[in-house]
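Sequence dictates fold. Next comes a concrete instance:
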Amino acid sequence: MKLNGVKILSIGFFLFGLIACNEEPINIDYCKMISKDQTYVNTDKSDMVKFKADKEVRHKIFEKNFELIMEKTKQDGFQYVSLNNLP
């Protein structure tokens, strides 16, 4: 009976390991993030419909980027940034 419990526990750990290994690492291209955001910068208020539409699209981009960065942080922790070697 004790052997069956060990087998069940081993199978459980194996399945948990498979699930954990299936999680793909998140790679963030910060330059792409910024350039996509900047395409919707609109300061021309002569066409308020386009101004509001661009503002809404940019807001959605901010939300998506924030969620992506939070997921990356949960996965890998906070990144260490050193300011010592900056030009």
About this structure: The CA atoms of residues 40 and 57 lie 7 Å apart. The chain is about 65% helix and 0% strand. The mean pLDDT is 79.
